[in-house]
Amino acid sequence: MSLPPGFLDEIRNRVPISRVIGKKVVWDLRKSNQARGDWWAPCPFHQEKSASFHCDDQKGYYYCFGCQAKGDAIGFLRDHDGMEFIEAVKLLAAEAGLTMPEPDPRAREKTDRRTKLLEVTEAASRWFRLQLQTGAAAAARDYLTRRGLDGPALERFEIGFAPDSRSALTSALREKGFAEDQIVEAGMSARPEGGGAAYDRFRGRIVFPIRDGQNRCIGFGGRAMDPEARAKYLNSPETPLFDKGRNLYNLGPARAAVAKGARLIVAEGYMDVIALVRAGFEGAVAPLGTAITEEQLRLMWRVAPEPVIALDGDAAGQRAAQRLIDLALPLTGPGQALRFVVLPGGQDPDDLIKAAGPGAMSALLDQACPLLDLLWSRETQGQVFDSPERRAALDRRLAEAVARIPDEVTRKHYAEDIRRKQWALFSPARQRPGGAYQKGGAAPGKGRRPGNGPPARALVPFVSPHMPEQGKDLLEGAALLICALRPAMVAQAESRLERLQPQDPDRAALLHDLLTQGDSPAGRRGLETLRRDSHLGLTPAIIERKDDEAAVVMLLDLLDKLEVARATTHEVPRAETEIQGEADEGLTWRISQIARARHRAENPEMETSGDMNEDRDAMAAQLSDWLSDQIWRKPPRR
């Protein structure tokens, strides 16, 4: 239907948008400025307690700072109430006191036709419900009773029964004055390919009415009572009213529940939704017998920014989850996310609620995982990444998946989380048992040294503090390699590792990756170079044989040697040669402290556990400060 120019503007001028939206929300009068037409409220499109939903009467638009929902009054009625465009215009025109322009004859005919088809489906719904009370429906009633559906549940969900008769419904609708063409077009009957009288589409089935967001009956779903039926579930065909890829079962009631704070839960079937709603999860919906479509995803996001997809734990549920990953990635972003719950042991929500109660379902929903976790599981589960080629193939698959995300910020966060997961998957600590500290033992660096085997320091190359630069590079490389082999130890020496300043770019990248849990190409090159270093050839094997406590002691001893070596190789000799004239007691004391630290680094076995370990961090920081301040330089005489 075409509208004359300026008609919509006239509606907007006459009806403030706050009047339309104010019927669905409670304004926060402390935050709102009524005189200026500036209104705030909790968002009706997603669950929140704070007032982040803004409505501006002067501009005629609304915007939610939480889920990014936005639009004008017509858009609000379409997104929130599920109205068609013309229906929203008619409602606002009536509110404004305007007469709708006369539609052209073809548009009027189309509207009248839809209205008549809706009358057919509503009449069919009433007839199905009456049939559930007949003797022919005894088996159907027994089945529903076994599934736990009592009288109020049958009434609430308008469940009915289609008798196993070729034309009972068609005849009943004819008696009510509907033409056979209308009955067929509404999807209630079908004609034989070879011609002849129409026959009922639903026969011998429990029938579930399907209603749109405005509570209009647009179609039906039927469950067969005959276990030998070709299709267990049968939906209405595509009609002017019904498009199974664009609607959801229980949409209207779920949207109202979500607006009051409920979670939007997407189950697999009608019975799952009914079980969830009866257990108190009133924001439950389901697709209509098909895999979730893009249109259904967008419809879900208009109701809530983060629906929870509750999948059966069987193979079919797993396949549905895998398909949904590829569908959702090109659409996901701020305000358009998904979380997933996979039910245990092949159960569906109805089974779980009956077996363990609503609390068990609620606990699973609280633990719902994001889309990223499902993607990672799909690409890694059941696979072995024991070669560079396999790891490269994983990198490529994940990169291609992330590249499909349109929002740049979301894409960045996906990439960061994937790098962390890759680090955890490929790190040696993950690939071998025994990653935690032994119970009953002191934390590394805070108590006794390992009691079994030779001292940890003897397992790494000895390098004197009076060493050339190549020796300090060896200590630095050994420390980085130990951290790469045992990433969990990085936190134990993080502050000291941060003070390392590798001159080699690849080593610097590796250090950055260790501190940030990153995974850069340069860092991987640095690690491979260290692994190939002939001077460090025994280090990986040594580290793998040691427990965590011994490995941390080795690392700390290396850092001790490295810091003392850098403080003494050049600075102390220069300080000694420059001391002339008046004695500088402060400098003398500092030199003595460096000498003490050097002695400890060279002979850690001579120190008690409560001596060296407790103050080694302070000593390391002090050495670093002295180097920064160039302590060997004598202050000028005055």
TrEMBL record:
Q: What class of enzyme is it?
A: transferase
- What are the UniProt keywords, alphabetically? DNA replication, DNA-binding, DNA-directed RNA polymerase, Magnesium, Metal-binding, Nucleotidyltransferase, Primosome, Transcription, Transferase, Zinc, Zinc-finger
- Native organism: Paracoccus liaowanqingii
Hey, what's the signal peptide range on this chain?
none
The name on file for this protein is DNA primase
Entry-linked Pfam families: DnaB_bind, DNAG_N, Toprim_4, Zn_ribbon_DnaG
**A GO cellular component annotation in the UniProt record:** cytoplasm
Q: Where are the zinc fingers (CHC2-type)?
A: 43-67
Q: Which InterPro entries match?
A: DNA_primase_core_N_sf, DNA_primase_DnaB-bd, DNA_primase_DnaG, DNA_primase_Znf_CHC2, DnaG_bac, DNAG_N, DnaG_primase, TOPRIM_DnaG_bac
Give me the ranges of the annotated region Disordered.
Answer: 429-455, 598-620
| Gene Ontology molecular-function annotations | DNA binding; DNA-directed RNA polymerase activity; zinc ion binding
Q: Which family does it belong to?
A: Belongs to the DnaG primase family.
What does the record note about the cofactor?
Binds 1 zinc ion per monomer.
| NCBIfam families xref list | dnaG (TIGR01391)
Domain topic, free-text comment: Contains an N-terminal zinc-binding domain, a central core domain that contains the primase activity, and a C-terminal DnaB-binding domain.
The chain positions of domain Toprim read 262-344
Listed EC numbers: 2.7.7.101
Give the UniProt record's GO annotations in the biological process aspect: DNA replication, synthesis of primer
Q: What does this protein do?
A: RNA polymerase that catalyzes the synthesis of short RNA molecules used as primers for DNA polymerase during DNA replication.
List required co-factors: Zn(2+)
Its assembly, as annotated, is: Monomer. Interacts with DnaB.
Q: Which reaction does it catalyse?
A: ssDNA + n NTP = ssDNA/pppN(pN)n-1 hybrid + (n-1) diphosphate
